[in-house]
Specification:
mainly alpha, 2 domains, single chain, two-stranded parallel sheet
């Protein structure tokens, strides 16, 4: 039973490189539905058997090296860490300052969402004066911030919580500077911890996740491991369960 389940998992979409971002099919309205279905099935079968090495060879290593990179902001983060160190006296304050920064960025989206709901309900768009008067984006941002402040959100908004928590933890640690790969590592943690049972990463991120001021591994019931031997043991246990 255990090995059959393991084999089934290895044949699932989650293990196929070409389907990491979901199922993709070619589509051309100029082709008949019958022919299009045949093409889509053939495309699906081809992509299903494609390995990571195949993808790299097709794309070409030069193309991969020239792919756009996220902007490296670590230098600015470390400067700001020192600059604003006096503004917060506890981890909770650091965490909330990160939350405030996040929800502030989302104010325009909150406002757009409220305008959409208003139009859907009343069949007309509010005037610019009405939008400015209600300032709905700011109201929602403040409400979310205060819910965080009062610890009323439980496990809601996990991506926000994990991102803010990790950044706050680095800011609190005087000896720890932001590193270039932290940005990607933090995004990996946001994607993994709330939704998976196991997260295999490197020592630095594991240390941050399991620190007493966060304990995200406990909060989201996710086993976090950075030791390759321990990770392999866990994989064998999964296969035999």
């Amino acid at each position: 039973m255990g090995i059959n389940l393991f084999i089934a998992q290895m044949n699932s979409y989650g293990t196929k490189v070409a389907f990491i971002y979901g199922t993709q099919h070619p589509h051309n309205s100029a082709i008949s539905p019958e022919e299009q279905l045949v093409i889509q099935k053939a495309f699906h079968d081809q992509m299903w058997t494609m390995s990571l090495c195949d993808m790299v060879n097709i794309m070409g290593i030069d193309q991969i090296r020239n792919m756009p990179r996220f902007k490296d902001i670590t230098s600015q983060l470390n400067k700001d860490k020192v600059k604003h160190a006096h503004e917060n006296n506890s981890f909770k304050q650091l965490f909330l300052s990160e939350i405030a920064g996040v929800v502030d960025c989302y104010k325009p989206l909150f406002e757009d969402a409220m305008i959409y709901l208003f139009e859907k309900e009343y069949w007309y768009k509010p005037t610019n004066e009405e939008i400015k008067k209600t300032d709905s984006g700011k109201s929602i941002a403040n409400a979310i911030y205060n819910l965080f402040k009062m610890n009323k959100l439980g496990k809601y908004f996990p991506s926000v919580v994990i991102g803010a928590g990790l950044y706050a933890s680095v800011r609190q640690d005087i000896q720890r500077k932001f590193k270039t790969n932290d940005m990607s590592d933090f995004r990996h943690a946001q994607a993994a911890l709330p939704y998976f049972d196991y997260f295999f990463t490197e020592n630095s991120l594991r240390d941050l996740i399991k620190r007493n001021n966060l304990r995200f591994d406990k909060k989201y019931s996710c086993v976090v491991e950075s030791n390759p031997c321990e990770a392999f043991t866990l994989l064998k246990q999964i296969g035999n369960s």
